[in-house]
Write a structure and sequence with these properties.
Spore Coat Polysaccharide Biosynthesis Protein SpsA, Chain A, 13 strands, about 30% helix
């Protein structure tokens, strides 16, 4: 591997969302601390980090929830003694790119992972482990992709791709919630990435143009800038089952899955 890209040691978990689509469950409990299968949603991402050999996790949280996450971390340190945990706050909802920037001091010198915990992925292999493996092969940013029915593409961020292997694609563009007839594929973005310092630099440059909360700073804009600069970007089509815990309906479906035989096998670390 190129010396400038050593092991992926740090994971950023953006967890500052208010969970409006999960109300009333989130009136008292932060979205990513809701229990699924007997443990907080965020712990599935932490477990993936452990399986992938991640050494540090930076939780980016809302100031109002900082105390709750500090309590969670105290317990997590005992369950995952090989991982160092850090908490940073995102004071205003400026977007997921802005959330990642809050962890800038931990990720400025090497590749890093990002995992949105409300996308819980049940599979025979850790999603982050799979991403790290592909990153080591291509030494370029890589994200998780999921193939969905074409009729549903207008609800997601869709990618324009060219196949590299049976499950890896080179990405050439990102299209947010396109009409069916304009969708470049039916591969959509899932909340898991391994990124490189140039992505962070793109975010910092884009952040200088932010003036209002409504502007937002989004990771996908940094991804587009990276591709426009001529550098490669890859996607891994992951075969596991995605549990979308970002909405009340999705969370209820995830709970049903976890109670099923397949969900119990997933919790036991077997093939889902």
């Amino acid at each position: 591997m190129n010396k400038k890209y050593q092991s992926v040691r740090t994971l950023v978990i953006p967890a500052a969302g208010l969970g409006k689509r999960l109300r009333p469950l989130t009136f008292r409990t932060p979205k990513n601390l809701l229990k699924l299968g007997g443990k907080p949603i965020v712990e599935y991402a932490v477990q993936e980090a452990h399986d992938a050999g991640i050494e540090s996790i930076v939780l980016v949280v809302s100031p109002r929830d900082k105390g709750r996450f500090e309590a969670y971390v105290r317990g997590a340190k005992k369950r995952f003694p090989g991982i160092s945990f850090y908490i940073r706050t995102q004071t205003k909802p400026f977007g997921n790119g802005h959330a990642v920037l809050q962890a800038g001091a931990f990720i400025s010198r090497g590749p890093f992972a990002v995992r949105f915990p409300d996308d819980v992925i049940a599979g025979k292999e850790s999603a982050l482990s799979s991403l790290v493996h592909i990153f080591r092969k291509y030494e370029s940013p890589v994200l998780l992709l999921k193939r969905i029915p074409k009729r549903d593409v207008s609800r997601y961020g869709v990618v324009k791709v060219k196949r590299a292997t049976s499950s890896v694609y080179r990405i050439f563009d990102f299209v947010e919630k396109p009409p069916l007839h304009e969708a470049p594929s039916n591969l959509v973005i899932i909340g898991g990435y391994v990124l490189t310092p140039p992505i962070l630099r793109h975010l910092k440059r884009l952040s200088k143009h932010m003036r209002r909360v409504e502007d937002g700073l989004w990771l996908v804009d940094a991804f587009k800038s990276h591709i426009a600069s001529g550098r490669p970007f890859y996607g891994l089509e992951f075969k596991g089952k995605r549990l979308d815990c970002g909405s009340l309906a999705g969370f209820r479906e995830a709970q049903k899955y976890m109670k099923s035989r397949a969900g119990r096998r997933f919790l036991a670390g077997e093939k889902a």
